[in-house]
């Protein structure tokens, strides 16, 4: 069966797409952003196509493409679309699939369903992306608690940003969670710098074991 990994985060704009591009590239896999809100800027799928080094066919089409860069439930309402969780059915593919949510776990798809409800239904292993900057201890521990309360398998935390040794340690200890690595701020951010940083700073074996 296809290995599928859900990439979620403690918030929007913390680097899930950049991490997903790096991981999908490293695994030579596929990428899927089922719900994209915001179409005026480069979409997450376009970013992954640019940064992952994967051929275009490895980026699956979104199920919902919503115009406004808002929470999907609101963006859908503005577009006059009803997001149906049942339409987000998992594709079967001949390689690992990286699935990115939008924002954090409690982000609504409609007035009844949030991303975390869909993840609970899927029961796929999750990687939680978390910033290293101040504020992360609270956001990350809350997200871990929410995942565990729903028995959603958590592979571990992927930190993004400059090293904050004590925050990272505190999350690992209080969260009783594996730390998969830390992606530093990359300048320039290119396919080359990203794939190098992913191999240097992440332990693929740990990720592979977590999604067995
Ligand atoms: N490691 C990094 N080095 C440099 N820039 C980064 C890095 N990670 C993220 N960024 C930048 O930070 C911004 C937000 O990152 P990204 O789009 O990956 O966030 P996201 O968590 O996927 O957000 P969303 O909830 O909208 O999907 C982007 O401009 C991205 O290029
Ligand atoms: C538009 C943005 N870039 C994301 N795709 C959606 C983020 C939703 C966040 C909702 C919230 O937590 O308030
Ligand atoms: Mg993203």
TrEMBL record:
Principal place of residence: cytoplasm
EC number(s) reported in the record: 6.3.3.3
SUPFAM superfamilies: P-loop containing nucleoside triphosphate hydrolases
An MF annotation (GO) of this entry: dethiobiotin synthase activity
Active site residues according to the UniProt entry: 33
Pfam families: AAA_26 (PF13500)
InterPro entries in the record: DTB_synth_BioD, P-loop_NTPase
Highest taxon above the source species: Bacteria
Binding site for ATP: 13-18, 44, 100-103, 184-186
Annotated catalysed reactions: (7R,8S)-7,8-diammoniononanoate + CO2 + ATP = (4R,5S)-dethiobiotin + ADP + phosphate + 3 H(+); (7R,8S)-8-amino-7-(carboxyamino)nonanoate + ATP = (4R,5S)-dethiobiotin + ADP + phosphate + H(+)
List of residues binding substrate: 37
Entry keyword annotation includes ATP-binding: yes
Compartments where found: Cytoplasm
Sequence positions that bind Mg(2+): 17, 44, 100
Cofactor(s) needed: Mg(2+)
Keywords for this protein: ATP-binding, Biotin biosynthesis, Cytoplasm, Ligase, Magnesium, Metal-binding, Nucleotide-binding
Pathway entry: Cofactor biosynthesis; biotin biosynthesis; biotin from 7,8-diaminononanoate: step 1/2
Subunit architecture: Homodimer.
Family statement drawn from the similarity comment of this UniProt entry: Belongs to the dethiobiotin synthetase family.
Function field: Catalyzes a mechanistically unusual reaction, the ATP-dependent insertion of CO2 between the N7 and N8 nitrogen atoms of 7,8-diaminopelargonic acid (DAPA, also called 7,8-diammoniononanoate) to form a ureido ring.
Alphabetical list of HAMAP family matching this protein: BioD
Alphabetized NCBIfam families for the sequence: bioD
Full protein name: ATP-dependent dethiobiotin synthetase BioD
Organism from which the protein derives: Mesorhizobium shangrilense
